[in-house]
Amino acid sequence: MVPSDRQQLLADVNAFCEELRPIEELCYVEHRFNDQVIPLAKKYNVLGMPVPVEYGGRGADTVTYARALARIGREGTGPRTFFSGHTSIGEYPIMTWGSEELKRRYLPPAVKGEKVLAFGLTEPEAGSNPLEMQSTYERKGDHYLLNGVKYLISNGGIADAVVVFAYPKARQGRISAFVVDTKTPGFQSEDLTAKLGMPTANTAMFEMSDCKVPIANLVGEEGNGFRIAMGTLVSGRISVASGCLGVIEDCLLEAANYAKERHQHGKPLAKHQLIQEHIAAIEMHRLTTEALVMKAAEAKDASAAAPNDVDLKSKADLLAAQAKLFASNAAWDAADRAVQIYGGRGWSTLYRPGRHLMDVRVCRIYEGADEILKLKVAAAVLGKEYEAYK
User: Is 385 a catalytic residue?
Assistant: First the structure.
């Protein structure tokens, strides 16, 4: 991506965020879904940032896309989660493993906002171990029949199409991936609103009952679904880490400004040493998170440039996990410290730190829980023969 295109994309993302903020804040206080994210994203042409230009996208490299998601992350984990679901794990598997026909059919409408995408891997009894999923598919002539339930799916209730994973019927074989149109008979979704945070984002579960999917909607080769899912999670983890960087940036700005304006004991909070301790900690979180996120994004770009290089692929996979693990915990701590600086006002959704605190907590769970990522990091140090689940 040439520098001028990169600068224009980031300028468009910034303009999108500035127009989104007052709407997002009102929706958050009213505890309702923000239905203006998609129209505004269409207005500023940011619904297909990393999608190749030939499919209508902006053709962003991973580093530029990560910076864009960090900017969106300042506005909240809810809006950023929409982009992660639609682009990082929705468009990404289609543009990486999909057939040319599948790309032509889904990517241009996704970029234009005519189709919202989602990623359906998690199930009620299959979270950290997707191999325990119960969803199945069966070949029937020129189509597949899919059955099963997917749970806690970002964009699941607003999606027009979902990348879904399932075993062959009776689990005789390996997982495959499909693009399922949500208007297909036998597909039914239900919004999940009993969440600790992210009220402005859509989270849903859906059930497939003999859901008829054309043969052409198979993503990649049959039996290659688990590899596709794991490869997509590299993209997803970088997007979560990038959003967490944005959360830290916003917490730092809000906390610093408030500490300068608020007076207690005859002087600004900013002159109190224990407040400065919090500010310094948040700044260190920002600095280290940015460095790690950018390193992971650079590794992802290097791997994409040499897709047959196993070492580069492994490095990108590990760095994405490390960045996501570190960033999500740093953002949680940064939001907690910002709430502490705000004091009583921090315990209110009228102020940004409290909203960040509630919303960013999920980042330590989805796209790989802390515990799973720690095992991955440890195995990289100790050697594959020491993997905990082998």
Answer: no
